[in-house]
Write a structure and sequence with these properties.
The structure holds 2 protein chains of 2 kinds. In chain A, about 25% of the residues lie in helices and about 35% in strands. Chain A has 8 helices and 20 strands. In chain A, a hairpin with a 4-residue loop joins β17 and β18. Chain B starts with a helix and ends with a helix. Chain B is built from 14 helices and 4 strands. The chains are: A alpha+beta, B mainly alpha. Chains A and B meet through β6 and α2 of A and α9 and α10 of B. The complex binds adenosine-5'-triphosphate and magnesium ion. Adenosine-5'-triphosphate binds next to β2 and α1 of chain A.
Amino acid sequence: MSVAIKADNLRKIYSGNPPVVALKSASLEINDNEFFTLLGPSGCGKTTLLRLIAGFESITAGELCLYGNNISNLPPEIRPVNTVFQHYSLFPHMTILDNVAFGLRRLGTDKNKANSVAQEMLDLVHLGEYGARKPDQLSGGQQQRVALARALTPQPKVLLLDEPLSALDLKLRQAMRSELKRLQRETGITFVFVTHDQEEALSMSDRIAVMSAGEIQQIATPDEIYERPANRFVADFIGDANFYDAVAGKHKDELVEYIIDDITSLKGQRVESIKENDKVTLAIRPEKVSFVKAGDKDTLAGTVSDIMYLGNTTDYLVILQNNETIKVRAENHHNGEAIANVGEPVSLAINPAALRILKK
Amino acid sequence: MKKLFNIIDQYKGVLPSALMVGIFMLIPILIIVVYSFMIPNPNGGGRTGFSFDFFQKLFFCRDLFDNLVFSTGYLKIFFRSMWISIIAVIVSLLVGFPVAYYIATQNADRRNFLVLLITIPFWTNLLIRTYSWILVLRDTGLVNSMLISSGIINEPITLLYTEGAIILGLVYTYVPFMILPIYASLERLDIRLIEASRDLYTTHWGALRYVVIPLAMPGIIAGSILVFIPSIGAFIAPELLGGGKNLMLGSLVQLQFSSGRNWPFGSALAVIIMAIVLIALLIQARNSRKNGTEIVH
Ligand SMILES: Nc1ncnc2c1ncn2[C@@H]1O[C@H](COP(=O)(O)OP(=O)(O)OP(=O)(O)O)[C@@H](O)[C@H]1O
Ligand SMILES: [Mg+2]
């Protein structure tokens, strides 16, 4: 598996007063033929990283390689990389076909050849009959697909997509997700996809880089990001989690007692790098907590304080004996009745394997 | 009849302005058209009567024996005017486009300030501004004395009273009319389109050629016509900077009404200029209709 993009301590400072450090020091490797996603909250530097790869911004420090070639100082027109812009940026004075054929034409392909490739690409995004129209005669979703076709036609080594779905309504967005996945498979082009929608990221990506405040927090597969978040930010940003400060206790075989306070402690797996008395943060996904019968071993007792019905599941807020709150997510019964009612005493169990131990 | 009332009712809002245009524009134009067919009066004005005198005068003149012979004198002036105006348009475009592009790429505050700067020349009288060009261009003027004192030339080069000086004067006077419409179309241009173009393998120049210029075309055409129209009838620059040597249509018209004492001929020339302007405007109208969907965004 070859590496498509390698970023080495990439740093970007926007000059200005004051200067903005948009990217602190990002290192990552994106594999050939991978659907790679940059995920993070607004302003964390996703677009900046993408624009550095495309060549629209100059690199402040660090190095960027594309298939082993240093491209740090190449202008965008030299880089075999194309972008699908968030606002599509279709050329309003050209027909759809001319838009899609534009890249190939500028690379020197003759008109007939470029047009026939463009037509094929339009067919691929189901817009074969729209070639003669102008961009303003298409709907937003159609323009989005034209932007995709335009960027794919020159067969770039890497396709960059900056929140390409954010302007579409929910149904269209969901349809486009599988469409994008399909295109990526069929073309075999490396996709670098920017989004701040975690569901989008989890469902489409081969790997995800979670970013925050100009730094990459974790790079991993979707299930790893969700099941084994590297730190509190990742655990919090992706999905729901309960967090508790705790101190590592003595270990018994591979299990460690993590002490939250005098009356509460949770059993979890032993982590190599964490020693006795180290301070840790415990993270528990709400759906990994289960209601059990009172009196079972290793249970937490509490009282239901609030219930939120979510359709297929229900969230229960439970106040534990130490006055901490824990969110529990449970699937609904067949008849939709709540498992417990507000004010009812309950017992909770957490499988040690489900407890994430994060270093502080 | 009822239909007529309906129409009047429908357009009664524009009636006052229609009257204004009618009285102050259409009637004078009509007078000029009527004059062009009258018989010249040596004391000025025109005698009632009907003649194609102007038409004859345009192409023929009388030789020593009072025979009509074909003469290109006036035609030359006509074509020189066209030629000089077209060059003025081209130079204005070459100067105006980069300026407009520069302004359009600045931030909003600076943009407004720069647009204000462009309009500053209009605050002083054109005659005075054109006179000051004489001081710059004449043999003992700024340019020549600087070139001589820096040793580049020994003898002053003739700058004043040349066609070049006229073109300079026209460009200087009318280049704001080129800059402003181009600026208006560039300002609306989405800068991200340039990025999209760069992304699709064009250089800076390619982006200019394939994206910026096509999208600025309505502004370029409007600006060209706005420079061409006043240039073809220009009077001050050809008189002062051309020294009356290189006669242009505007000067010719002025001449007919003053020392030439041939008002009908002057009127006819004015009608010809008007016809050229009209043609230019028609081209513009067709162009903007064609680009209508692209301009409106
Ligand atoms: N041209 C610029 N000049 C100065 N600062 C900038 C510029 N572009 C972005 N920034 C700043 O850099 C930081 C990162 O911006 P960036 O656009 O990369 O964020 P993002 O992750 O794409 O956010 P979003 O999800 O909102 O698009 C932000 O603080 C932003 O204000
Ligand atoms: Mg962004």
